[in-house]
Amino acid sequence: MSGTFSPSSPPSPEPTQGFLRACLRLPVAETPLWLMRQAGRYLPEYRQVRAKAGDFLSLCKNPGLATEVTLQPVRRFGLDAAILFSDILVVPEAMGMSLRFSEGEGPILDNPLRDRAAVDRLRIPDPETALGYVMETVARIRRELPASVPLIGFSGSPWTLATYMVEGGSSKGFRWIKAMMYNDPGTLHALLERIADSVAAYLNAQIRHGAQAVQIFDTWGGVLTPQAFREFSLAGMARILSRLERRGSDGSRVPVILFAKGCGTMLEAMADTGCEVLGLDWTTPLDEARRRVGDRVALQGNMDPAVMYADAAVVRREATAIIRAFGANPGHVFNLGHGMAPDMDPERVVELVRAVRETSREILANPR
After folding, report:
1. Is residue 213 part of a domain?
2. How do residues 155-164 score in pLDDT, each as one tens digit?
3. pLDDT by residue (tens digit) across 85-128?
4. Catalytic residue IDs
5. Is residue 209 part of a domain?
6. 59 located within any domain
7. pLDDT score recorded for residue 88
8. What is the CATH number of the domain that holds 97?
9. Which domain does 95 fall in, by range?
10. Residue 152 in contact with residue 211, Cβ under 8 Å?
């Protein structure tokens, strides 16, 4: 079945894993926890594998090594979900763009898209061939993960991917894509639709190969006005959701998480897309978000990642406050409001996991 999950759909098996249960707003014994960028340079074991791969993109394209770094944080911390190790920009590369990573500069896409002719030259790739290495990684991870730990697949949102494709890499001012948005919106819409269809095919392939949930990252949605966000970001994410396969091969429901950084004013509109979970950054209080969206979606988040630089007692205090703010209500997945940074101490993650588990077990066992 594709498209938004409908209440009239045949019943699917009820998941036993805490992460999937929380995504579907089912009761859990403790709040499940995973972290964005949980596999990364803050882990010494990741740095060893990265050195073996030679460079970041080679690591992403090596299914054996990408599987290893996906599993590392699950083994070390006992997290409740694994997230595929890859990069959002493999999709533009598969669409025909040249991608490279420059040390100290980040991603570079040569020949950025600046006109309709360049957009029309893009292809909608077959993920089984153009991104076959990702599919092999997904399948390998799923085989090696314990059955109790779900695998999350992911992609960037159409707007976020478009920013890199039009700017030619990372940007602070978004000059080129915003100029296109205001001067030539037809070309930008054509690009966003092509990306959305590519992403939908890509995520569907991840689901076929074993992803049990998927997250769409809209890292740069917050640089748009609310009106522009609806037209140039939210519409693309809704287009993806309308094309997604929402059941796994065993008939289980596959939750979709929308994470749009800096878009706390748009929660109600995002919930209207039919996603199961909204990811929150740290600028929107969790209890306020729950009041606004009610029981329509689960919530994921939302500790300020900078807390991980603080003392262990502060990490515990902040995590406990977030758990208490959500209370015993169903549908909370604990996460940071963005990702782990390379200079963070892995021991802070140990303290974070302990705090989330202990506090949530107490609250969920004794609801008021």
Report:
1. yes
2. 999 999 999 9
3. 999 999 999 999 999 997 766 899 999 999 999 999 999 999 99
4. 37, 41, 50, 87, 164
5. yes
6. no
7. 98
8. 3.20.20.210
9. 81-279
10. yes
